[in-house]
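Hi everyone, sorry if this is the wrong subforum. Our group has a chain we'd like a structural model of before ordering constructs, and none of us has done structure prediction before. Sequence below.
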Amino acid sequence: MFVILVYDINVKRVAKVLKCCRKYLYWVQNSVLEGEISETNLKKLKMELDSITKDNEDSVIIYSFRTTKYSKRETLGIKKGGDENII
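Answer:
Right subforum, don't worry. Here is the predicted structure as tokens:
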């Protein structure tokens, strides 16, 4: 499946969250990652994020799509992240 993950995390934990997410997804912009991920790895990612984040301070939103067949991605301005290898 293809996912887009966005987050709003307390500055104390933001580096840990980004590092965790980059194990599974591509960083494309500040607080935004995307990529293909298996259901198993998505569950692992959610568990890792749950252990890092605090429910009363942080927010993570994951949009999941079965296919990207009807999607289009367009970047205006500078390209911040990219398709470099996942850590």
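For your construct planning: The first helix runs from residue 14 to 22. The longest strand covers residues 2-8.
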